[in-house]
Amino acid sequence: MRLADLVDGFDGIRLEKGGNQDIGGIAYNSQRVGPGNIFVAIEGFKTDGHLYISEALERGATALVTGEGREIPATPPGIGLIHAVDTRLALALLSDRFWDHPSGKLKLVGVTGTNGKTTTTFLIEAAMNQAGMSPGMIGTVAYRVRGRELPAGRTTPESADLQEILATMVSEGCTAVSMEVSSHAVVLHRIDACDFDVAVFTNLSQDHLDFHPTLEDYFEEKQRLFLPRSRGGLGPRAAAINIDDPYGKLLAQSSEGEILTYGMREPADLRGEVIEMGLKRSLVQVSLSGWRQEEYTALTGAFNLYNILAALAASILLGMDPDSSFAAICAHPGVPGRFQNIEEGQDFAVLVDYAHTPDSLRGVLEAARGIARKKVIVVFGCGGDRDQGKRAVMGAIASKLADLSIITSDNPRSEDPLAIIREIEEGARSTSGAAVYQVIANRRTAIDTAIREAVSGDVVIIAGKGHEKYQILADRTIPFDDEAETRAALRRRLA
Q: At which residues is N6-carboxylysine found (predicted)?
């Protein structure tokens, strides 16, 4: 594609020099630049792409996109030069055009919220399969093209990578995509060029306040996915919104287009109820305008019913049959690291879950309380270099809802694990009538202790890391898998 054609007609993107260069690819990382590529210099959190322009040129870049007014090294003759008011936005728009607007050729569903995005995305994919679509999926656990796994990186890929993945899906016959949308992706313009058929809102609670100044700012960024483009949003055709969530109510009032609300408490369009709750399966009921259906599902817990409702609402908005969609969603075996039942023949329940926010920890502990015949034991910690405000809150929640809390290390990153634990302890101690808690900084030992403490009828929750296969320390990342560690601890207990 000619450079002039690639940049033509975009507000805030100005062709300064060149135009006849043939562009063979788009790169935002200088180490990934190839001959004939256009290099887009974006400001990252740790460094600035403008510092790597010389390296990009050495690797064969034939054109550059730089920030308006930025000083850059002198460019050789024949190099195209574009200035952009916002180079991240430029990256999204140029990548979309380079890959021929792939989202416009797909039924695209974007799922956003603090909790439940991953499970909901998996469930929508299952319903799409049932409906005879050929779906792709993009999310925290996996990127998938018609069942074929791709290496997963960010929850929502950088815009250039996202458009290339979507183009790959189109070329391989996908007709629909279920995609997680993080708040980072909205702020950093990763999805600005995408056409969404349906946007899904799961909930909003305290998280990412290391990135967003306030919870209100966090909400406003989420809200962009639902607003029309005339109001600065991303203009989905339709929206599925959890109206039980206070922010969901606000969203339903401000969104335009077709809206389908769902919930268990408020007067939602699509309503759900847990009829029977068990460890390995629950009976759930859903209803919409006179239609009513019940199914057994391995997705136990009230929080999972919200995920079921979200996926079903999205399916209905896509025009899919509600009966077959609901059956496919309820037949899903579950997502790795999401309330995952670990079975090694023990007479108590052990579940591994990604819960790493106050709201998600509360949800899994309430679900555990609903199925436990005796005690609830939880192992959890908080990540370093992340929202510090949620640490004491999570300590209080665990102390209130569990009979025994074992506070341990999560991904401490650059922080002292014991300092993080002390902040969690403040919340645990503050809870009136607080249950017993222990501090065991070594996560392997903490898991082993929880398994040894459990007796018949107990429920043990290993929370925080879920599907992750690593632990991030200050100076290195080491292999660590909660599922594998839990199975090993159970086998030692049962030996």
A: 222
pLDDT tens per residue across span 155-190: 899 999 999 999 999 999 999 999 999 988 999 999
| Annotated binding-site residue? 410 | yes
Same domain flag for 124 and 71: no
If we measure between CA atoms, which residue out of 105, 128, 109 comes closest to residue 226? 109
The verdict on 234 and 381 lying in the same domain is no
Q: C-alpha distances in angstroms, 287 versus 203, 232, 275, 303?
A: 20, 34, 13, 17
- Residues 282 and 225 both lie in one domain: yes
Q: Are residues 17 and 110 in the same domain?
A: no
pLDDT value at residue 208:
47
User: Does the annotation list 315 as a binding residue?
Assistant: no
Domain that holds residue 69: 3-98
Q: Is 464 labelled as part of a ligand binding site?
A: yes
To the question of whether residue 113 is assigned a binding role by annotation, the answer is: yes
pLDDT in tens, 284-333: 999 999 999 999 999 998 999 999 999 999 999 999 999 999 999 999 99
136 is in an annotated binding site: no
Please indicate if the annotation marks 118 as binding a ligand: yes
Q: Is 168 annotated as a binding residue?
A: no
116 among the known binding-site residues? yes
Residue 280 annotated as part of some ligand binding site:
no
DSSP code per residue over 354-376? ---SHHHHHHHHHHHHHH-SS-E
Counted residue by residue, the chain has a size of 495
**30 marked as part of a ligand binding site:** yes
Token representation of residue 241? 């919104």
- Examine residue 335 and state whether it is found in any structural domain, yes or no: no
75 labelled binding-site residue: no
Mean per-residue pLDDT over the chain, rounded: 94
Closest CA to 170 of 125, 138, 134, 196: 134
Q: Tell me: is residue 386 an annotated ligand-binding position.
A: yes
114 annotated ligand-binding residue: yes
Residue corresponding to tokens 């503050």: 430
> Is 369 marked as binding a ligand?
no
Ligand-binding site membership of 156 (annotated): yes
Pair 227, 120 in one domain = yes
Last residue of a domain, one of 311, 330, 349: 330
State whether 402 and 364 are in the same domain: yes
CATH number at residue 399: 3.90.190.20
Number of separate domains in the chain: 3
Q: Which of 272, 295, 330 is the last residue of a domain?
A: 330
- Nearest CA to 10 out of 97, 118, 108, 130 is that of 97
| CATH number reported for the structural domain that contains residue 48 in this entry | 3.40.1390.10
pLDDT, tens digit (0-9, with 9 covering 90-100), for 216-242: 888 888 899 999 999 999 999 999 999
